Amino acid sequence: MEFTIKTGTPEELKRACIVVGAYSDGSLTAAAQAVDTATEGALSRVLKQGDLDKKAGSTALLAGLAGLKAERLLLVSLGAPDEVNDKAFRDAMTAVGRTLAKLPGKDASVCIDMSIPGRDAAWCLQQAARILAAAAYKFDAPRKEKSPATGIRKVQFLVAESASAALKTAIAQGQAIASGMALTKDLGNLPANVCNPTYLAETAEKLAKKSKLKTTVLERADMEKLGMGSLLSVAQGADTPPKFIIMEYKGGKAKDAPVVLVGKGITFDTGGISLKPGAGMDEMKYDMCGAATVFGTMKAVLEMDLPINVVGIVPSTENMPSGRATRPGDVVTSMSGQTIEILNTDAEGRLILCDALTYAEKFKPACVIDIATLTGAVIIALGKVPTGLFANDDELAQELTAVGNDTGDRVWQLPIWDDYQDQLKSNFADMANIGGRDAGSITAACFLSRFTKAYKWAHLDIAGTAWVSGDAKGATGRPVPLLAEFLIQRANAA
Ligand code: BES
Ligand code: MN
Ligand code: ZN
């Protein structure tokens, strides 16, 4: 999707569609008011007749209005005027995005002249651009008959104040974030027979063709030399070779400490010898969504050309049962030297992450954030609304929580108190890889915390937020908005 910005109102514009907002009490935004005047009260009549539901995000599509040059007018409800908030705005933009994605015709003008308490025009435009562009995402499924491309491709934002450089930057950021999200969704949605560790490594190499990124891929033999016994214990059951992918983006000063992102890249999780039940197992192709988030965030950072240093690390393998697979009870030595008794081969994410987290030390990071579809238990604890957040540094946790609220890509912190560490006791090694039924997401995070003592660290458990199941099954692109905005704010602060 292509965006432009202009100051003004839409009544004179020749477009496939123009979009204006109305409130549940029947009042109109300034742009909607201008349209109403030009059409001799067409919008007022729609509202009076009750043809626009009062809930924020309801829409009414009106075609061929006399007095307008545009082919269609989309009226979107912003909800009650005294309750307009972030969610109402996002709901409205999501509905607009869905409608525009289905319309015939090429171009639309979207009026952004509503005021959201506590938010400026730049915030509105970044959000709007991201949401509209993300709504246009379609997975290119390999069907015999290709479905024809539909939907509006060109969107012009009409704003009340001047179309400043700051607003243009906000739109470009929203677009870059959506473009990163599209990569994350594609990688997640691809089946595991296509998107395997080698495919992820090739994706990283393709991204590196853009100047400021350097990609390095470590092979099994390299991992053996580094002593990554924990990661390799997961990989040993699979026939596809594991890859350890490192992407270094140098947008900042040479000696600025980088933000390191580590993404779980299990391209398919069968559970290994601790085999998962069959129902719904196809969704374990999404077990690389942490890795996909690292790729998507890198793509967004590249497109924004952010002045910051970022390192992406993706340990990647399948988790398969076989004659060579790790058995429950096997003991392995991690790169850190700590030994692990593998009581359940389905708790494999932490086994690959721990070696990647140890590897991350060499970058002397400003902070490390890992992203992983780590536990089903986080869905029991928090549902599918926020990502689970864990951290060994309260400031970093608060920073991520605030960015989550800014973007709507929210996180909620859970504790990793030492009191939980006892659950990981083993009679046969430094620790077990599972902590029993209680607080499964917390004990998983506690396991990781034993490998992150050298730096400030946060862990994002995205098992509930990375994809949706059911009829609309598909990757969400989360938490790319969170991490991209985190990096924008860090770059602005530097
Ligand atoms: N990839 C899964 C976590 C998962 C499960 C994500 C369902 C999304 C939906 C992870 O590797 C796993 O299997 N975790 C186990 C841990 C348990 C064995 C301690 C789980 O959550 O059941
Ligand atoms: Mn598993
Ligand atoms: Zn897994």
Spell out which ligands are present.
ligand BES, manganese (II) ion, zinc ion
- The mean pLDDT is 97
Low-confidence stretches: none
User: What's the β-strand tally?
Assistant: 20
Structural class based on helices, strands and sheet pairing: alpha/beta
Strand content: 15-25%
Q: What is the top-level CATH class of the largest domain? A: Alpha Beta
- Gross geometry: elongated
Number of helices in the DSSP assignment? 14
The amount of helix comes to 25-40%
The radius of gyration is 24 Å
Provide the CATH architecture of the largest domain. Answer: 3-Layer(aba) Sandwich
Please give the domain count.
2
Quick rundown:
The chain has helices at 30-38, 42-48, 86-102, 121-135, 165-189, 197-207, 220-226, 229-235, 289-304, 349-360, 377-382, 394-407, 440-449, 480-493; strands spanning 2-7, 17-22, 59-63, 72-77, 107-112, 154-159, 213-218, 243-250, 259-263, 265-269, 309-319, 330-333, 339-342, 367-372, 387-391, 411-413, 431-432, 457-461, 467-468, 474-475. It is of the alpha/beta class and 494 residues long.
Per-chain topology:
Blueprint: E1 2-7, E2 17-22, H1 30-38, H2 42-48, E3 59-63, E4 72-77, H3 86-102, E5 107-112, H4 121-135, E6 154-159, H5 165-189, H6 197-207, E7 213-218, H7 220-226, H8 229-235, E8 243-250, E9 259-263, E10 265-269, H9 289-304, E11 309-319, E12 330-333, E13 339-342, H10 349-360, E14 367-372, H11 377-382, E15 387-391, H12 394-407, E16 411-413, E17 431-432, H13 440-449, E18 457-461, E19 467-468, E20 474-475, H14 480-493
Parallel strand pairs: 1-6, 2-4, 2-5, 5-6, 9-11, 9-14, 10-11, 13-17, 14-18, 15-16
Antiparallel strand pairs: 3-4, 7-8, 8-11, 12-13, 15-18, 19-20
Helix pairs in contact: 3-4, 4-5, 5-9, 6-9, 8-10, 9-14, 10-13, 12-14
The structure holds ligand BES, manganese (II) ion and zinc ion (ZN).
